[in-house]
Amino acid sequence: MGTTLAEKVWADHLVRKGGDGAPDLLYIDLMLMHEVTSPQAFEGLRLAGRKPRHVDQLIATEDHNTPTVDIDRPNPDKTSALQLSTLEKNCKEFGVRLHPLGDADQGIVHAFAPILGLTQPGMTIVCGDSHTSTHGAFGALAFGIGTSEVEHVMATQTLSLKPFKTMAINVNGKLPADATAKDIILAIIAKIGTGGGQGYVIEYRGEAIRDLTMDERMTVCNMSIEAGARAGMIAPDETTFEYLKGRPHAPEGEMWDKAVAYWKTLKTDDDAVFDKVVDIDATKLGPYVTWGTNPGQGLPITADVPDPAKIADATERSAAERAIKYMGLKPGMPIKDIAVDTVFIGSCTNGRIDDLRQAAAIMKGHHKAKNIHRVLVVPASSRVRLEAEKEGLDKVFKDFGAEWRNAGCSMCLGMNPDKLVPDERSISTSNRNFEGRQGKGSRTHLASPAVAAATAIRGTISSPADL
Ligand code: SF4
To answer: Could you say which residues bind [4Fe-4S] cluster here (predicted)?
Structure first.
């Protein structure tokens, strides 16, 4: 019997087979680090008197706690300032390469690494951050790990892991012009639920996936964790190779040819069997948006807010009741009638150059609606910011009345100055709409950059077709 892509990468990194229920030991090619989940790992290493096993396979950036304005001034938030200075001190002491705030390669941990060509097909990549699944877009086996595991990888460059189950999600047919990668993944999570991927590594397959750019594939894999999956992967192909060629860390010359020859073997065999298969008809998809407080509570933008009284399952009914109350909505109201206060375009899900181009194309020649307090456009990395400025996208955003910021996690989560106030409602291109995610009492609707841009123009949740 053949093997799946995930099983191939696993087998190529096996240091020791566990057996008898014991975990396998896997070699880890690359570990990404940031200021939030690394301090305890460095401290553990320090206390044990150890040094990193392969320091050149660790790389750090600053993203969660960084301000996105006035980055040259001292950070006014003491906790954030301490987190960042601790990372800088630790990286210096242990010799870990760091891209700090202000560096041209600084950015969200899942955005700066692919741009540098550090993320490559067939790798094992870990980070103390759940959205590490993003890197699976290149055919890497990439997943988030806990703090003690971060320390283990630093000390040994290996990780003990129990094998995952495998799931194929086939997104069949062509995606309609008004649907995007974000709509694909929101539709998948709405279908399989936030626990639907638990215990699995998902492989996204099918024509609609093959047609996506690398930025779009990263959007899909990024949100695998929101379906509960350990990781998401897409087999590498010409789109992947074209993206990687010439990037600073991509192989060159003869090594490039050898790498591509290996990368071409990284695909699921025709006779491989997945533990679970889900089929999605891409031709039926359109813009999606969440109405509730988890990423699975999403619907097509043309739908109404669900009426909990019509939900048969008691657990789902009570979750919907609670979500609707928290979100300040009414059952049965059209999603398109929901007026928002703030628009956030950014994050490791949708802060890449393709996303900014998509938003700018819609905003160009318009101005933000009167009821919109603020529109934040936050590139996912400093390189994305530079590229956007080269293309004049910053001018489009500023003319629109948006704020053009420096790179960072920003309003994806309330860990830096970019927060919502209680009851403030946002449409956000990020990945989590949990209660309080964007600040205490904040209300978040997840959507694509296209929907966020159209909403910023009309003031109510809208798709570009409504303009
Ligand atoms: S942008 Fe949001 S989800 Fe992504 S790494 Fe930052 S905080 Fe996490």
So the answer is: 348, 409, 412
Quote the ligand 1 centre to 227 CA distance (angstroms). Answer: 16
**Other beta carbons within 10 Å of 197:** 27
Assess contact for 338 and 100: CB atoms under 8 A. no
Q: Where are the alpha helices (DSSP H) in 129-213?
A: 147-156, 181-192, 207-210
Architecture, CATH, for domain 5-263: 2-Layer Sandwich (3.30)
Residue ranges around ligand 1 (CB below 6 Å)? 63-64, 108-110, 129, 131, 347-348, 409, 412-413, 430-431
The mean pLDDT of the chain is 97
Q: Is 127 annotated as a binding residue?
A: no
pLDDT tens-digit map of 48-81 = 999 999 999 999 999 999 999 999 998 889 999 9
Has this prediction a pTM greater than 0.90?
yes
Q: How does pLDDT run across 421-442, given as a tens digit for each residue?
A: 999 999 999 999 999 999 999 9
User: E-assigned strands of 137-181?
Assistant: 141-144, 158-161, 165-172
With cut-offs at 50, 70 and 90, classify the pLDDT of residue 19.
Answer: confident
Calculate how far, in angstroms, residue 361's C-alpha sits from the geometric centre of ligand 1: 25
Q: Does domain 295-466 have CATH number 3.30.499.10?
A: yes
Cα–Cα distance measured from residue 243 to residue 313, given in angstroms and rounded to the nearest whole number: 45
Q: Whose CA is nearest to atom 6 of ligand 1?
A: 409
Question: Among 132, 430, 437, which residue has the most ligand 1 atoms within 8 Å of its CB, making it the best to mutate?
Answer: 430
Percent of the residues in the chain that have a pLDDT greater than 70, as a whole number: 100
Give the start-to-end residue ranges of the domains of the chain. 5-263, 295-466
Q: Using the mean position of ligand 1's atoms as its centre, give its distance from the Cα of residue 32 in Å.
A: 13
